[in-house]
Amino acid sequence: PESFFCIDLHESSENEIMTALVIENKDTWYSLGKALKQSTEKTLCGIKINILIYGEGNKVTKQNSIYEFMEDLTTQEYQVLYVGDIDVAGIHMLYESILGNKDCSVKPFISLYQRMLVDAKFKDLKATDDNRGLKYEKTFLDYFTQDESALVQQVLDNNKRIPQEILNYSDYLEMVK
Questions:
Q1: Is 55 within 8 Å of 25 (Cβ atoms)?
Q2: Three-state DSSP class for 112?
């Protein structure tokens, strides 16, 4: 498969599990990459990030796309975290990525989703123009506290959107070490 755009942030020791973070949005990928490059420990929300991947929208949902990319990149053990918009389309892409890459166990990066929720609480969220319907993977709600889950469900059920861009470079600088 074509390679994804990626930023290699941190050489890992042979015994260390590498962490790849897949970002759905190019602006977010760039801003977060810039913040992580400036950090000394290359950690985001307490997790060391070795590789930051721009998922290029639906490209990341293609069968085995992440798995094949990571297998070409390293022989080390690794984990893959994913973050996208909190909207029906974003949750759909997350779960399509999980289902399409079973050999590398993609998981949502909940700490970053939670930070998006904090910043969204007091904003007037816009409805999306996505007409694919309101079906989404309800198990996504289980990752959050009861209050967070209620907010996420309200956003999704009302076809609204919390974009990744709700966080910016300054926010990322605060979250990295």
A1: no
A2: helix
Cα 32 from Cα 36, distance rounded (Å): 6
Cα–Cα distance for residue pair 13/109, rounded to 1 Å = 23
Please give the pLDDT value at position 122.
75
Q: Element (H or E) spanning 100, and its range?
A: helix 88-100
Which pTM value belongs to this model? 0.92
Q: Whole-angstrom Cα distance, residue 22 to residue 6?
A: 9
Report the chain's mean pLDDT, rounded to a whole number: 91
Q: Are 97 and 22 in contact (CB under 8 A)?
A: yes
| DSSP strand pairing (18-23 vs 51-54) | parallel
Is the model's pLDDT at 1 over the cut of 70? no
